[in-house]
Design goal:
20 helices; three-stranded antiparallel sheet
C-alpha cells in the first residue's frame, strides 16, 4: 500500500512539473510572438510570417515538452537512454528550423562531403587553390542569392527544394574545408549517397545527411555516457547544449569531432575504473577511436596521449603495456602526419607545397614572450565570449542567431552546477591531474597557434578563435571531480537546459522567417 502511495505521489509530481514547464515554454512562445508582431508592424511586412512562427513555434514546443517528459535523474544507469531520446527530439527541431547551409561554414562542409560521395578522397588542386567540379544544381542550391552562402531564409528553402538534380552543367567551386578527412563526414556522405540512390536533389540529400549526422553523433555520445563511471549527469547536461546539438544536426565537422573526443574520453575513463585485462574487442575499439580522434582535427591530437593513463591491469605484463601504449600513440601521430603529408603531396604546384606558415612560426619561436602576451590579451578581451559560444552564444549560424545574454549565461551556470554536483572521482591523483592539465593546455596552445597563423601581422589579439573549438576541452573535465559536491535538485538543472534550448530555437525561427 505504501509503495502504491509513493508511485502515485511520483506520478503526480511529474505531472505538476510538466504542467509548469509547459506554462514556461508557452510564455516564451508568446514573448517572441509579441516581439515578432511588433517588428512586422514597424517594418510594414506581411503578417504571413506570424503564421509561420505559430506553426514552427508550436511544433518545437510539443517536441520540447515530450523531451522533458523523459527526464528522470533518479535512474542514473539509464541516463544514456534518456539522453538519446531527448537529444534526438531536440536535435530534430534544430535540423528543420535551421535552413540548410545556414550553420557556420556549412556550405564548405557540404561541398567537402559531396565530393567525398563522388569518390574524391582529397580535393583536387589547381589554379592555386583546392577546388572541384560540381553539378550546377549543387551550385545553385548553395548560391541561390547574392548574399553570403550561409545567409538564407525559409523562403530560400522553398526555392532550393524545387531545384532538379543533374542539370547537366558543371561548375568549379573552391572548398575551404578541403583539409578535413573522411572521418568527419561518414554520416553526411552516407546521407548524400542515399539521397542520390533515390534521385533526390541537393536539398533533400542535405536533409538526409543532416539527420544521419545527428543520429551518428547522438549515438556516440549516448554510448559514451553509458561507459562513464562517474559524471553521467554532467555529461548529459553538457551534451544537450545548442552548440553540440545544432552542429550535429548540420553539415559540419565539429559535431563528429566533439562526439569522437567525448567517446574517446569516456572509454579511457571506463577502463581506468574497470581495471580489467583487454580483450581483442577493446584493442580494436581503441584503434578505431585513436584514428578518429587523430584525424578529426590536428589540434586535438594530444588527446591520444590519454592512452598513457590506462592502468597496468589492462595488460598482461609491464612489457606489453609499454609496447601497446607506444604503438597506439604512434598510430595516432602517424595517421595525422600522414594525412597532412598526403594533402601536401596532392598539391601539384611548388607554391602550394611550400608552407605559408613559415614566417608566423619563425616569429613565434623568436619572440615567445610577445606571442604569450598576444594569447593572454586575446583571453582577456574575448574569454567570456569564447565561454558563451561553447554552449550557445552569438556565433550560431554564422552570427545570424544571437540568443539573449541571459540565455548564454544560463547555460554556463547550469553546466557549472551540474559539474559541481557530481561525486568525487577517487582515482584522481596529483600526477594524473598535472598530466591531464598538460594535455588540455597543449590543445589550447595548438588552437591559438593554428589561428594565429591566419592572423595579420601586428595584431594584438588572435583572430578567428571560436568558442566551440574548446568544447572537447570541457568534455575532458570529466577527469576531474569536486571534493565536496554540492546538493542541488538535478531535475531543475535538466529542465532549465531544455527550456533554454527552446528559447534558442525560437530565436532561430524568428531569425530565418524574413
Amino acid at each position: 500500500m505504501k509503495l502504491k502511495t509513493i508511485l502515485n505521489h511520483e506520478k503526480k509530481g511529474k505531472v505538476i512539473r510538466l504542467v509548469a514547464i509547459a506554462i514556461i515554454l508557452l510564455t516564451a512562445f508568446l514573448f517572441y510572438y509579441k516581439n515578432l508582431q511588433a517588428d512586422l508592424y514597424a517594418d510594414a511586412l506581411d503578417t504571413k510570417y506570424l503564421n509561420g512562427y505559430i506553426i514552427l513555434g508550436l511544433i518545437t514546443l510539443v517536441f520540447t515538452l515530450i523531451a522533458t517528459s523523459f527526464i528522470d535523474t533518479t535512474k542514473v544507469k539509464k541516463l544514456h537512454k534518456q539522453y538519446f531520446i531527448i537529444a534526438m527530439l531536440l536535435g530534430i527541431c534544430y535540423l528543420f528550423i535551421m535552413p540548410l547551409f545556414t550553420q557556420s561554414d556549412e556550405p564548405a562542409h557540404y561541398l567537402r562531403a559531396y565530393e567525398l560521395s563522388e569518390g574524391y578522397f582529397t580535393t583536387p588542386y589547381y589554379e592555386n587553390s583546392r577546388q572541384n567540379s560540381f553539378d550546377k544544381s549543387v551550385i545553385d542550391s548553395i548560391y541561390n542569392n547574392e548574399k553570403q552562402a550561409e545567409y538564407k531564409k525559409y523562403e530560400d528553402m522553398l526555392k532550393i527544394s524545387k531545384i532538379q538534380l543533374n542539370q547537366g552543367e558543371k561548375g568549379n567551386l573552391k572548398i575551404s574545408a578541403a583539409n578535413y578527412s573522411i572521418v568527419n563526414y561518414i554520416p553526411h556522405v552516407l546521407g548524400i549517397l542515399l539521397g542520390k540512390l533515390f534521385h533526390l536533389n541537393p536539398y533533400f540529400c542535405g536533409i538526409i545527411g543532416r539527420f544521419l549526422s545527428l543520429l551518428f553523433c547522438v549515438s556516440l555520445v549516448s554510448v559514451g555516457i553509458k561507459l562513464l563511471p562517474n559524471g553521467k549527469f554532467f555529461a548529459l547536461i553538457l551534451m544537450l547544449s545548442p552548440t553540440f546539438l545544432s552542429y550535429s544536426a548540420s553539415f559540419s565537422a565539429d559535431g563528429t569531432t566533439i562526439a569522437y573526443s567525448f567517446l574517446f574520453i569516456s572509454y579511457i575513463l571506463s577502463k581506468i575504473k574497470e581495471k580489467k585485462s583487454f580483450k581483442w574487442q577493446d584493442y580494436f575499439l581503441l584503434f578505431l577511436l585513436t584514428i578518429c580522434v587523430s584525424l578529426a582535427k590536428v589540434v586535438y591530437l594530444p588527446f591520444v596521449f590519454l592512452i598513457l593513463l590506462l592502468p597496468h591491469e589492462c595488460f598482461k605484463s609491464k612489457k606489453q603495456e609499454i609496447i601497446v601504449k607506444i604503438i597506439y600513440i604512434a598510430i595516432g601521430i602517424s595517421m595525422n602526419l600522414g594525412w597532412q603529408e598526403l594533402l601536401k603531396w596532392t598539391a601539384t604546384s611548388e607554391a602550394a607545397m611550400a608552407s605559408n606558415t613559415e614566417a608566423p612560426n619563425n616569429w613565434i619561436m623568436q619572440q615567445p614572450i610577445r606571442y604569450l602576451m598576444v594569447v593572454l590579451n586575446t583571453i582577456a578581451q574575448n574569454g567570456y565570449n569564447y565561454l558563451e559560444n561553447i554552449f550557445a552564444g552569438e556565433f550560431l549560424c554564422h552570427w545570424q542567431v544571437r540568443p539573449f545574454p541571459i540565455v548564454n549565461f544560463g547555460f554556463i551556470m547550469v553546466n557549472l552546477f551540474a559539474f559541481l554536483s557530481e561525486e568525487k572521482n577517487r582515482d584522481n591523483v596529483w600526477k594524473k591531474t598535472i598530466f591531464i592539465v598538460g594535455i588540455l593546455g597543449s590543445i589550447f596552445v595548438l588552437i591559438c597557434t593554428a589561428l594565429y597563423l591566419c592572423t595579420y601581422e601586428g595584431a594584438r589579439t588572435i583572430i578567428g578563435i571560436q568558442g566551440r573549438y574548446f568544447f572537447p576541452i570541457i568534455c575532458a573535465l570529466l577527469f576531474f571531480k569536486v571534493k565536496n559536491p554540492i546538493k542541488i535538485n538535478k531535475y531543475i538543472l535538466a529542465y532549465i537546459t531544455i527550456v533554454l534550448n527552446y528559447i534558442v530555437m525560437l530565436e532561430m525561427i524568428t531569425t530565418f522567417l524574413y
